[in-house]
Amino acid sequence: MPPNILLITADDMNWDALGAFGCPNANTTPHLDQLAAEGMRFDHAHVTISVCQPSRSAMMTGRYPHHSGGEGFFHLRKPGIPLLPECLRNAGYRVGILGKYGHSTPYESFRWDEEKDIHDLGHGRNPKIYANYAHAFIENTAEAQKPFFLMLNIHDPHRPFYGNDPREWYQDTDPCPALTPSKIFHEDEITVPGFLEDLPEVRKEVAEYYSSVRRGDDTIGAVLKVLRETNLEENTLVVFLSDNGMAFPFAKTNCYLNSTKTPFLMKWPGHIPPGSSCNDHMISGIDLMPTLLEAAGAPLPDHMDGYSFLPLLHGNRQAEREQVFTQFHQTAGKMNYPIRCVQNRRFGYMFNAWSNGEREFRNESQSGRTMKAMCEAAETHPEIAARVNLFLYRQVEELYDFDNDPHARKNLIEDPAYREILWELQAQLEQWMIEHADPALTAFRNRSDPDALAAYMQQQVQELGGTI
Fold it and tell me: Could you give the CA distance from residue 394 to residue 357 in angstroms, rounded to a whole number?
């Protein structure tokens, strides 16, 4: 019998929020750390686009957003593209989803066999309710005598964070303490990520974020317990990843390392050695669909951009996994900020087609304490002022050396010592754009011409709507 598949996603969980990936804060994710100990950790996994609905559309189609028409917060603009749950259902699976229903259903017409969304799940943050619905889905599937595909989408640690979330959430849940994390983090026990500024209000918000990380881990632990109690653990392939980085400046809705790098785990008893890791290959969100279909023995549809990394689970090597290509198009607020990026294990190069020195970046990450505190500190601290200015206005091109600058604080685009690296990455990105018919190719080739970039921005608005 083909394996059951439990695909777990967290919402905005940074790659290094897990202990298994070196989180500097103790006891953030005990259940995910246990999952890592029982399976394989991928040290260089990236989502294709760092915002939730487009990220999931790439996972559900195995295609780059400009190929599927899933660039923004809308259903796919291109009809007839095969979907992961659809292909699995055609192969005999029963398919269900808990949480992020709209963001994980690329076509409005697609119907899951069972689905529950945020309001059914204690605001997407109640471990007990998730576990109950997961158990019911598994029982119903057993009665149908089919393997299952369950997409489990945890809404933590998306904003609002624990301690800053609506009080009414705690008045309409049963029991009320269900939304309280098993561990609450405080400002004096956390490490502020190196790409942010260590300011009191930043520290407070990061602590709230980690409390939400822990609550998300609580939910995942509750569902994994259901898997054990139903005696399905041995024949279930469990996959965990985050849809994008944390909702802070220089992470979510961008193409920085902390935007797209994701904590990727897989457990498959009898197929994946416990406690193993893959640290010399890079995988992408578009590779998830072909990998799961191959594991299920299901036919692979034509024209997917991703390809299966199933051989890596058995310790084999694969060619063409030295870099990943990521992109960004449009925020949830319908603002267009087209970005293209190529990253390898050491360097990252970005092309910001939207940056013209005047256009200002606006996203969800600026809605909390952190950006406000950084802007206030910028008034008296020139280094923080430069950091805020970079975030708001960028440059057309950025280049970072992660070995020497893991938090991407020094743009090397003008550094002559990195000129050959720059040329190599520019050539790789251009070749990828040619091979994948990227509509940004002309703008990239004319990136020093403001008129060419302006024309591409207008093209973005015509194709995707929104504003610039």
Answer: 7
Answer yes or no: do 413 and 268 share one domain: no
Q: What is the pLDDT of residue 174?
A: 55
- 247: tokens are 């909702």
Closest CA to 224 of 378, 468, 455, 36: 36
The Cα–Cα gap between 324 and 343 comes to: 6
> Helix, strand, or coil here: 201?
helix
Q: How many CB atoms neighbour CB 348 within 10 A?
A: 25
For residue 291, what pLDDT is reported?
98
Q: What pLDDT is recorded for position 178?
A: 74
3-class SS of residue 349: strand
The answer, yes or no, to whether the previous bond of 175 is cis (omega within 30 of 0) is yes
- Give the C-alpha separation, 380 to 320, whole Å: 47
Same domain, 253 and 342: no
Q: How many CB atoms lie within 10 A of CB 200?
A: 11
CATH number at residue 280: 3.40.720.10
Per-residue confidence (pLDDT) for residue 218, from 0 to 100: 98
DSSP state of 180: S
**Mean pLDDT for each consecutive 10-residue tract of the chain (468 residues)?**
96 98 97 98 98 97 97 95 98 97 92 95 94 97 96 97 83 66 96 97 98 98 97 97 98 97 98 96 98 98 97 93 98 96 98 97 93 97 97 98 95 98 98 98 98 96 94
Q: Exposed, middle or buried by CB within 10 Å (0-12, 13-18, 19+), for 79?
A: exposed
Same domain as 405, residue 309 = no
Q: Provide the number of structural domains found in the chain.
A: 2
Query: What amino acid is encoded at 136 in this protein?
Result: A
Range of the domain at 425: 325-464
Residue in the block written with tokens 């990061």: 206
Sheet holding 336-344, edge to edge: 323-330, 336-344, 347-352, 397-401
Handedness of CA 380, 381, 387, 390 (dihedral sign): positive
CA distance 234 to 33: 19
Cβ atoms within 10 A of the Cβ of 176, count?
11
What pLDDT is stored for residue 1 in this prediction? 83
The reported pLDDT for the residue numbered 292 is 98
